[in-house]
């Protein structure tokens, strides 16, 4: 029996199995589709587009509070752009795979299938993010770490469950939403696996140093079985008893996100005047190298147009470089010997690192962003405090349960209504559902509800 942290690769993963059609359906309830016009993976994309969790991304801030005049990206527009880049990456890699492994064509797999898997997974990559972005993630974690009515739950849950609560993770929340029966998405196994960039739980015996897939975690303690099910179906090898290797296409989903947030956040920073036009042009020129021809920009009168042209050219170059990096390391990825971000090893990696450095200092730490983060902490903590206190009083400190608590609990969604709690036995599941409720809100919904439960505003006011 291996030690908890020993590496236990179970042979090289096989593309025929990694790309197999089939939906996440542990209970075998899905009805096979006879649809002729869309593949299983194209259906994934369409199901996501029309889902409520995806629509909510339109009112979740990407980086900046939404200004009145200048367009900047929301989580929705960012996700659509990441998906577009992901499709290009997937189709290009798919063409290579079909040439290298002719048996894939015999299985009916096309390059468009690979592109569709990456596009769908990329479309969902931020679906688990709470209101106010990363500040919202930190606010949820900090509530359970530091707030009296957060800390009080530690004695009521298992250590592995507590680790989930004090380290809220948008990736794990996304996985939870995508496999949720309530959302009814029933995505394909391949899309779910490509979405899961960090195939491990929050509490592990020891991280494997240098492995990108170990940086964060990708599913909660009560969903290890869900990931184990899809990993077994797709032949994804285990890294050790607690963790798995990535599905190879997860590297492309990650790269699509890395490309977009680096380049697009820079463009937004220039739009809002946080980075000068000259700086933005210079940083993008570092990626374009000899393809940068400043004289050709003169035919575009507006600086925004010039920046947009260079942005498009830069993304095109980065896509080509990432595809080549994937091809170079494809066998090592299947074997489990490669586990890095592809954008860290491409020729443009130094130029991207420079963009990220500028973005950290001039964009992510700018006053509008910091003000949004500060507001996010107040709103998320305030909501958790109000609802968590009422839940605690109902079940554990019953002598304190008041009319105020009763009114607060009636504001919760149906699955958390007081009428459904008569047989309450699982504290962790209860807290998870509360976090689902709050993390699923849009920025505006969270702010409006916070004002109401705190008495700052009344309904209709």
TrEMBL record:
One function term, GO molecular function aspect: dGTPase activity
CDD domains: HDc
Pfam families documented for this protein: HD (PF01966), HD_assoc (PF13286)
Record bears the keyword Hydrolase: yes
Residue intervals of the HD domain: 75-262
An annotated GO BP: dGTP catabolic process
Assigned keywords, A-Z: Hydrolase
PROSITE patterns xrefs: HD
Domain of life: Bacteria
Cross-referenced PANTHER family: DEOXYGUANOSINETRIPHOSPHATE TRIPHOSPHOHYDROLASE (PTHR11373:SF32), DEOXYNUCLEOSIDE TRIPHOSPHATE TRIPHOSPHOHYDROLASE (PTHR11373)
Protein's name in the database: dGTPase
Organism annotation: Mongoliitalea lutea
């Amino acid at each position: 029996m291996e030690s908890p942290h020993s590496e236990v690769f179970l042979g090289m993963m096989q593309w025929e199995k990694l790309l197999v059609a089939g939906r996440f359906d542990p209970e075998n309830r899905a009805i096979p589709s006879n649809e002729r016009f869309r593949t299983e993976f194209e259906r994934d994309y369409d199901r996501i587009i029309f889902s409520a969790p995806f629509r909510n991304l339109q009112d979740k801030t990407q980086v900046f509070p939404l200004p009145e005049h200048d367009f900047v990206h929301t989580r929705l527009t960012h996700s659509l752009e990441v998906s577009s880049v992901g499709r290009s990456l997937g189709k290009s890699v798919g063409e290579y795979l079909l040439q290298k492994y002719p048996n894939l064509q015999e299985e009916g797999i096309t390059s468009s299938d690979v592109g569709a898997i990456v596009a769908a997974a990329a479309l969902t990559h931020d679906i688990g993010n709470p209101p106010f972005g990363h500040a919202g993630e930190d606010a949820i974690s900090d509530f359970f770490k530091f707030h009296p009515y957060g800390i009080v739950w530690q004695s009521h849950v298992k250590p592995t469950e507590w680790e989930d609560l004090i380290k809220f993770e948008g990736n794990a929340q996304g996985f939870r939403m995508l496999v949720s029966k309530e959302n009814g998405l029933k995505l394909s196994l391949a899309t779910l696996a490509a979405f899961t960039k960090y195939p491990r739980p929050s509490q592990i015996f020891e991280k494997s140093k240098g492995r990108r897939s170990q940086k964060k975690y990708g599913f909660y303690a009560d969903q290890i079985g869900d990931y184990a099910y899809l990993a077994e179906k797709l032949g994804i090898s285990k890294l050790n008893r607690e963790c798995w290797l990535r599905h190879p296409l997860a590297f492309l989903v990650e790269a699509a996100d890395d490309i977009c947030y680096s380049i697009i956040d820079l463009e937004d920073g220039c739009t809002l005047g946080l980075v000068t036009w000259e700086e933005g042009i210079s940083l993008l020129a570092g990626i374009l190298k000899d393809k940068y021809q400043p004289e050709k920009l003169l035919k575009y009168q507006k600086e925004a147009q010039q920046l947009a042209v260079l942005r498009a050219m830069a993304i095109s170059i980065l896509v080509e470089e990432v595809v080549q990096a994937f091809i170079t390391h494809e066998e090592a990825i299947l074997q489990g010997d490669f586990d890095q971000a592809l954008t860290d090893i491409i020729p443009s990696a130094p130029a991207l690192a420079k963009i990220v450095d500028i973005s950290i200092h001039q964009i992510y730490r700018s006053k509008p962003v910091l003000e949004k983060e500060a507001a996010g902490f107040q709103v998320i903590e305030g909501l958790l405090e109000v609802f968590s206190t009422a839940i605690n009083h109902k079940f554990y400190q019953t002598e304190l349960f008041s009319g105020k608590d009763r009114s607060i609990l009636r504001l919760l969604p149906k699955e958390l209504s007081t009428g459904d709690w008569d047989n309450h036995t699982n504290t962790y599941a209860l807290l998870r559902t509360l976090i689902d409720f709050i993390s699923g809100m849009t920025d505006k919904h969270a702010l409006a509800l916070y004002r109401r439960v705190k008495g700052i505003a009344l309904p209709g006011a």
